[in-house]
Amino acid sequence: MNIKKAILNIPGMKTFNTERLHSGYKALDKTKKKNYENCKYVPAEGENTPLVSVIIFVLNWDAKPDKLISSLTKCSFYINVEYILINYSDSNAVINDIANWKDTNNVTIVDNPGNETCTVLYNRAVSMAKGDKLLFIQSTLQVTDGFLDELLKTEANSENAGAIGAKIVYTDSKDENFKKAWKICHTGVDFKDKTVSEEFILQPYNMNDGASSYDVSQDSGERLALSGGILYVPKANFDKVGGFDERYSNTLYDIDLCLKLNQKGFTNYYCDDCLVYNTCEGIASLKEFKTNKKQKKQDVEVFNALWQAWLRYSINKETRDLDSKTVDICGAHPDNENTKFWGDYHYAMALKNEFEKRGYKVNVLSRENWYKQTNAAFVIVLRGLKEYYPEIACRDENCPYPRKKYIMWNISHPAEVGIREYNEYNYVFFASNQMKKMMQDELKVPLGVLLQCTDPSVMTSTEGNEGRYELLFVGNSRRVYRQILKDLLPTKYKLTVYGRHWEEFPVKDYVVSDYIDNNEVGQAYHDAKILLNDHWEDMKKYGIISNRIFDALSAGAFIISDNVVGIDEVLEGNVVTYDTTDDLSKKIDYYMEHDGERKEKALAGQKIVREKHTFANRVNDIIGVIEKL
Description:
By secondary structure, the chain is an alpha/beta fold. Helix content is 34%, strand content 21%. The protein folds into three domains: 3-188 and 214-305, Spore Coat Polysaccharide Biosynthesis Protein SpsA, Chain A (Alpha-Beta Complex), CATH 3.90.550; 320-453, Rossmann fold; 469-613, Glycogen Phosphorylase B (Rossmann fold), CATH 3.40.50.2000. Strands 1, 2, 3, 4, 5, 6, 7, 10, 11 and 12 form a ten-stranded mixed β-sheet that branches. The protein has a six-stranded parallel β-sheet with strand order 14-13-15-16-17-18. α20 links the parallel β23 (559-562) and β24 (576-578). α13 (343-357) crosses α23 (615-626) and α19 packs across α22. The termini are far apart. The relative contact order is 0.07. Mean pLDDT is 90; it is low at 1-33.
């Protein structure tokens, strides 16, 4: 059969531009369409016929799957399959459009009422799959005779096949400016040099995209990565590398999967004999979906953080000289004028000072600069609001190039951190003994405990202004009514508040400034008759004592705080805690009248903190760990 005729008879295909369509056929007359019987997959003697789970991703109504379904129905190919359709837009229109095919083929539908990312949905579909082989395919494609057989044969005839991709070819488009009609879309994924913000990276791209007429044969063979438009993966391989990484939203997850397979010793292959067409139906909405700025930025950041060092070595054989006396400290603070409002910044700078006293060079990296290329052999991540992504090979003992070692110090927001994230580090410090006890049985990474701490050289005070404040609270709202202030107000005492974003709450009437300089806050703590402190709910659950407790005690403050597991043991009862609104009121009344008891607890707490809970103490412990990594 003439290939031109075969294309004209692609089920459901429309001819949008006859002149352009036929001009693209001149070279195609030379190529003949294979007979299905000649390409049919036949298992080797004694082998079972594998079930292939075909997982179809349907973005929305614009990228409707009727043409793909038509080609799956009318083309001849390996028949031992099941179909799982991901209805990304959760649209009844999509399901109604394929009702007959769905009923005939007993299709499983994966709906998306929760607006999940495609990686989550793909992994959910795989968890429902019964097949030993997986075929991921997007609804904008159309298949041809024997397409699946060619993929099965490639696996059977290849050594240690990881993932296998196909030849994807553009058809015509309604867009008169479309310049790639009847040209190749994909013959594998390679990487090219690119400079972004003065950083050299290797960026993935589709090989031969738009460069060749599709009748030109390409060499089948090994590829570092392949497009997820159509991707065949043995399920055992998929499971071995943990499936699609759900830190990606909608892009680069396919490349990531292929690289993980390669890293685990598998080889990915491109099969030139497996031909599918990109019909360009819905391609605009698909492109918009894949280029959502916020999601794409996140996906690119994840990919570059995980893979750039590995790619530079694998492709360019580029190694690097890491300095065991250089440390990166990564905090969640921004790289702008607001950084002064972030405790993470002051925390990182205090660590830096102590490391430098011990002969280390330290780079304090803001959120925007976390993945800047440095020669640091060790990276300390102050895990708070944002997840950090250690390099993919950091725990690989057989890594062929020098690898950085990553240490997490989980100082806040513990509920945001999962098992997977912890296990990607070389070492994890928890900010409480309670947290270590809760997590240690589930983790594979070495663990330690580093409570939060203080810098006595900054958190200091002078005598003479005691009682300048009756009640003092220093902290931002973060758009919630902080519990201790909610329990306090109204009050008969004079309350002073430093902090931001209190406009929506009664606290606004007590705010004297949205900011107090870090070099002045210790004196303010000391000068208050009673400093009020509270903890976020997850910090209380996990027993993380706020660093404000340590700072304030270092400055000689008397503190009343909400209760948190371990606070009495760590600070030997020198921080007064309350449980109810009435309890808080009574304790404030009592200690307002007992100056001597306030002073006694403040001095005892100061002594404990300055002896056991300084940044100097913590850096000594950290160095003890990194010298053994």
